[in-house]
Write a structure and sequence with these properties.
Elements: H1 2-24, E1 37-40, E2 48-50, E3 58-59, H2 65-82, H3 85-100, E4 115-117, H4 136-148, E5 153-156, H5 164-182, E6 187-192, H6 195-206, E7 211-217, H7 226-230, H8 239-249, H9 254-265, H10 268-296, H11 300-305, H12 311-319, H13 327-341, H14 343-352, E8 356-363, E9 365-366, E10 378-379, H15 385-388, E11 393-394, E12 419-420, E13 430-434, H16 446-456, E14 473-476, E15 482-484
Helix pairs in contact: 2-3, 3-10, 5-6, 8-9, 8-10
Length: 485
Amino acid sequence: MKKFISIILAITLTISMSASVFAQGIHNPATCENEPVIIVRGMDFTGLYYDVGTENERPVLSVDVGKIISTVFKSVFMGIFSLNFDKSLDVICDYAVQLLGGLSMDKNGDSLYNVGVIKCPGSVAEHPELLERGDCEFGMVKSCAEKYGADHTYYFTYDWRLDPFVVAEEINETIERACEETGHDKVKIACASMGGVMTLAYLTEYGYDRVSKVLFLSSTFCGIQMPSELMQGKVKFEGQAIADIATYAVKDIPVVNVLLQLLEKAGLFDFAEKIADIIIDKTMDKVSEEVLIKILSYMPVMWALVQPQDFDKCIEYTFGDCMEENAGFINRVTKLQNMMNGRNELLYEMIDNGVDIAVVSNYGSPSIPVYESASKFCGDMVLEAHQTSGYATIAPYNKTLGDDYVAENPKYLSPDRMVDLSTAILPEYTYMIKQAPHVSCSYGTDYNAFFMWLLDYSGDNFKAGVNPDYPQFMQSNTNEELFKF
């Protein structure tokens, strides 16, 4: 019943927006100031399906709680029965491979199975179901549809595992379609999370003649840290990093938070780290061969995300003595690294030629504790702010840069002394928002209003802080309310 009501509301909203257009007369691009908006969403981990569009369509990742529980019991039984810890861990690893196996790519970097995503090729006017939700990217969609028209709003989905240059071709098709359908010569792009590197691939391959504005929101336009370390075998469950994310997750539940802090002081998380080290030591070869290399390392996008200083080391660790056998794939991902190395010059050129660019990075939360240096970073609980900000200097979680820290340009030092934007690629065009969740933009929130202001602003000066309501450094909460320092 709820779904039925949601569909009716979505259709009603679409009809009302269409009625508004007709009330004003047939759309005329010559007088319309609303350029179409392309929203390039982030990675949808559960949005991959086998045999999309057929009667056999089914999700690639299907988490069965019962299966997980039975696997754990089987693992424990196997360890006790055989008195062999390795066999017990093999059961867990085998299940992980089974669970993630559908994500596998072949050695050319193409999907091994018939896997894809549900696409929305037309404008939101043709896909009213997109208006049913209002969180994250859907909040962007809903607000843009209301302000600019559903027929001027496009929601771009993609298979996040693929070569970004392959996805770039699809982005180009969407942009050309938007221009043709609306009669405008240019579009605005809002790219979130993984959409950042996909948009960068589009700009690299097709240029920016069709683009008037790009918003990089919690995005991967400078890669991320995690793949750089995982593809060197630097898997680590550090006690401090685990404690950080555990206490942060329950920060709004005082009793639980205090309990976890007491357990941290008692050494529980350090003990957990030692146990994890033993498990990793015993399973690393199998995990590397069956998961990191077989599944993760043949996803081209991962190599675009690897940090330039780690690229050669990751190639060596991953392919080692098999360089010649994997020469074609290595050449393919080297092109992606060249794209990342040419990013700065491209962005500077775009700004010089009148394209508006804004970078929005959220910080103040711990990083995911699965790699060696996780405790040295902070971010938005998903990505590291060092990269999403375009390489600003940022203190580790729950720390500052120090009272004696001197920024190259004092105006780029955040009031809490946690961020120095002086080292960022685009310090003049970058906003830092403390404590905001990853890809904030839920419909009706302050953060969403800020996003819409960025998208709508048409003045000559697009630099961060030009609007006193939205200074360069802001604070947020889990409700996406924005506050000034």
